[in-house]
Amino acid sequence: MKTDDLIRGLAADTRPQRSLESGLALALAVGLAGAVALFAMILAPRSGMPGLLMEPRVLMKFVVSLSLAAVSVWMALRLVRPGANARSLVWTLAVPGGVLAVGVAAELLVTPAQGWMPGLIGHNAVYCLSLVTLMGAPVLAAALFALKRGAPEHPAWAGAAGGALAGGLGAALYALHCTDDSPLFVLTWYGLAIGFMTVAGALIGRRTLSW
Predict the structure, then answer these.
(1) 79: closest CA among 23, 162, 9?
(2) Of 16, 63, 82, 201, which one has the fewest beta carbons inside 10 Å?
(3) What b/e sequence results for 45-81 when a residue is b if at least 16 CB atoms lie within 10 Å of its CB, and e otherwise?
């Protein structure tokens, strides 16, 4: 090989690569665009939105789902790098979990006991489970695609963080339409949908994020 060819090859190999952070941000923009497109095709914003954000129970749904998405991004970016301690990062879930716990406690205090079960069951439980999952799917696919550039020691944990991120964003989108505002409903049905996305992310990530 000629010296000039070698120099050109080395220069090509050292071209700056997109960081994990910017790669994930770009992928999430694409995935979220897909989720928004699904929302526009299937659903419509709830009547009175965004004025309803002044209602504490409505606002809580967005605080919980978006804070979960935010901490999941933080967890995912750390879990796809070697040396990350998966268990030590779980404490960050205390942020969305704490907000939801306060909301549930307040609901139990101010609502008569006979109103607890109707609030938990709501009116659209099946739609919540299916639509949060559906709108989270393109986000999960985009997140896992971006995270493949990492080198996680625990790919299932990294995939689970991607799933929780997708579930949080899918839940936030569905909340724009949802008329079930009880924190008991959010805990149960949003929680099940997000849990499903988290498990799906772990199972898929265990295979696709391995190196």
Answers:
(1) 162
(2) 16
(3) eeeeeeebeeeebbebbebbbbbbbebbbebbbbbbe
* Pairwise CA distance, residues 149 & 57, whole Å: 39
Q: How far apart are CA 201 and CA 101, in angstroms?
A: 25
Decide: 166 and 136 in contact? Cβ < 8 Å: yes
Contact (Cβ atoms closer than 8 angstroms) between residue 66 and residue 186: no
Domain, as residue range, for 133? 17-208
Query: pLDDT digits over 50-79, tens only?
Result: 899 999 999 999 999 999 999 999 999 999
Residue 197 lies in a domain: yes
Residue 9 placed within a domain: no
